[in-house]
Design goal:
CATH topology of the largest domain: Arc Repressor Mutant, subunit A
Largest sheet: 2 strands, antiparallel
CATH superfamily of the largest domain: Winged helix-like DNA-binding domain superfamily/Winged helix DNA-binding domain
Number of strands: 6
CATH class of the largest domain: Mainly Alpha
Order of helices and strands: EEHEEHEEH
Structural class: alpha+beta
CATH architecture of the largest domain: Orthogonal Bundle
Strand order of the largest sheet: 1-2
Helix content: 25-40%
Shape: extended
Number of domains: 2
Length: 134
């Protein structure tokens, strides 16, 4: 969320944002729920250097664990997701930590791993199909 768009707001309720809870020194907002139609991340090639295709993505995805849990900070609301510390051990670039030491996961960025993992799986399937007799 672009902090400049919400500069000066303590709370909001629109089509894109509901109840801003806190803003840290970096200008990041945290909220219990943000509802929107789309979330777009800046991804223009002109902003990137040293571009490399991800490798070993399938093994990284296979190392990840999807979990269900009760969120103690949300009245034990039952949810599904991942554990930031576990993801950090596999792909540290996906994890951030706030000033209080709470870790967050950039869930959207997991997509790049999934794309490459599917490609790796597809290649394995092609090899198996080529070597099998129907």
């Amino acid at each position: 969320m672009n902090a400049d768009l919400l500069d000066g707001l303590d709370s909001a309720s629109t089509n894109t944002v509901s109840t801003i809870v806190a803003r840290d020194a970096s200008g990041n907002f945290s909220a219990n729920v943000i509802t929107c139609v789309d979330v777009n991340s800046t991804s223009d090639i002109k902003l990137k250097t040293n571009i490399q295709t991800l490798t070993n993505s399938l093994n990284k995805v296979l190392s990840m664990r999807g979990v269900e849990f009760d969120r103690v900070d949300l009245n034990n609301k039952h949810q599904v997701g991942v554990i930031a510390q576990e993801i950090e051990a596999i792909v540290p670039e996906l994890v951030s930590e706030d000033s209080e030491g709470t870790k967050t996961v950039a869930y959207g960025k997991i997509t790049s791993l999934l794309i490459e993992a599917i490609k790796e799986l597809t290649e394995k399937v092609k090899v198996l199909e080529a070597n099998s007799k129907y």
